[in-house]
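Worked example 2:
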Amino acid sequence: MTASFFEAEGPPEAEFHPGIARRMAHKTVAAGALIRDPSDRILFVVPNYKPYLDLPGGIVEPGEPPSAACRREVLEEVGLDRPTGRLLVVDWTPGRGPWSDQVQFVFDGGILDPATVLRPAADELTGIQWLPLDAAQIRASLHRRLSLALTALTTGTPIHAEMGHRYL
């Protein structure tokens, strides 16, 4: 985003009651890319810090838009630099174990030739896998979220979900 974008918003708001903002809840925000091959297999990453496959993507940094985080994380994780496509799903998931509750954005990562050389980040991934959705070892909520993302690809309409369930 450009400086003029932020300038157009005007100066930051003053805090009427000092300390109140620090006491408010803070959620983790994550962004991932649904990247497919011509056979409709999905690109999954194999994290070294959790037992399930995941989409390429990661945590949005403070002050960073989710779409920019998605592009940055895909580049960092698999060495692929490409524009982030349209929004497919926004999904809320509750905290689990050490992870806080999250708002997760899934963007269209487009179709990629599976022969494209990808470089999994050795510090956080043990590899990548191209799999059909139903063959992937993933959490049930991620399976539901990705099913919704595939629906959004077809309909052209982003979907709001909670724990992978469509929210009306």
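The CA atoms of residues 118 and 150 lie 23 Å apart. The radius of gyration is 17 Å.
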